[in-house]
Known about the structure:
- There is one protein chain.
- The chain is built from eight helices and seven strands.
- It is an alpha/beta fold.
- It has two domains: 1-16 and 176-220, no CATH class; 18-167, Alpha/beta knot.
- Strands 3-2-1-6-4-7-5 form a seven-stranded parallel beta sheet.
- Helix 2 runs parallel beside helix 6 (150-167) and helix 7 packs across helix 8 (191-200).
- The longest helix has 18 residues, at 150-167.
Amino acid sequence: MxxxxxxxxxxxxxxxxxxLTVVLDNVHKPHNFSAILxxxxxxxxxxxxxxxxxxxxxPHQGRAAGTDRWIDVRTHPTIEAAxxxxxxxxxxxxxxxxxxxxxxxxxxxxxxxxxxxxxxxLLGVSDEALALADATISIPLVGMVPSLNVxxxxxxxxxxxxxxxxxxxxxxVPHLDPALRHETLVEWxxxxxxxxxxxxxxxxxxxxxxGTVTKLPAGP
Length: 220
């Protein structure tokens, strides 16, 4: 552990946006899944949500560049359950889908709590998910291809959200709950300690000024 790494982790957490997230509706290609997570990390998304068609689906390590360590992925049994959870938490569900009547993605206000709903390539967002979405957006295309790769579409939209939030000053003030921030910091910097505390049901330890664990809690 170095002080630079500790300060970098704190800086990143202080810019995380807990009210901006993605919902992946059966995005079944691991390289797309991982590329989306990498963009989530880049724009400050704290947690992603997914409905997986198979429990074996995992981010592709090479394409994620280790991002799965920095972005927690909460899985849900169905897309209906995922959307219900997010709506109960105050999120607006915005579906990226080239449907008739879809709004230009740049016209939405992403400074509000927003969950970007993305579907698998070819099939797109499912009819069940579209019926539950609060808004449907599309990316204008002037070429021959009818759509973008889902990970590219995610990056385009998330960077518009990042631009709006940067302009609104939302990256200048920490938004994470202090207890959650500390817990995440320990998980990032000391994953073995975090795993030990979680298995033993112990509180996470304090960290000193360079990120070192001050004292490991005694187990039962």
